[in-house]
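Q: Convert this sequence to structure tokens.
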Amino acid sequence: MTVAELMKDRTINQAAEGEVTADDYVFAIDISDDKRAEVDDYVVVQEHTVSVNASFSPDTTESQYIRSGKSTTKTGTQETYSISGDRYVGDPAQDFLLSYKMIYARGEDARIPYVRFNILNGKGVKGIGTVIVNSDSSGDAGSNSTFDVEIRKSGANPQEFQYVPKTTGGSTGGEGSTETPGGTEETQSRTMKKVVKEQI
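A:
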């Protein structure tokens, strides 16, 4: 399932208020070869997924100053998404994350774009993460086969993200419509030239 398919019958309210459940968060990944897919084409991590837990680990340094005591300086934050569930063959997200390619990927090959946002107000983050497969096909006899994957922030901090559904004008998720009222600039230019010619 893609983000566009998940969101097609849902309405984003940026001013939404109220309690939030774990099911109200969308986590999706870019599985395209060039890693340049539009957010609406990202695949959603959902099928037979038990949890997608976001955790944050701060980096700090400690300094002792004269007559001031000890001081803690925060130098960064590592973000990790822990994904676990039951194996479902045929799900695009699982098949990609648990593929031979990703299990043994190194360096840049293990890095993928991801997005996480609230399904109610569309607010979230968009970044790059490194895929780490901890286990696949785990479980006892007669039980479901389970998996455990982590996606850890790689490089710069993720950017703030606002999901905006696709419109008839062809805008992409997160970018909004850029179509000029009354048509595109090219269409308006042709119309203006026609009017001027008729007046002459």
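The helical segments are 3-7, 92-97, 100-103, 185-199.
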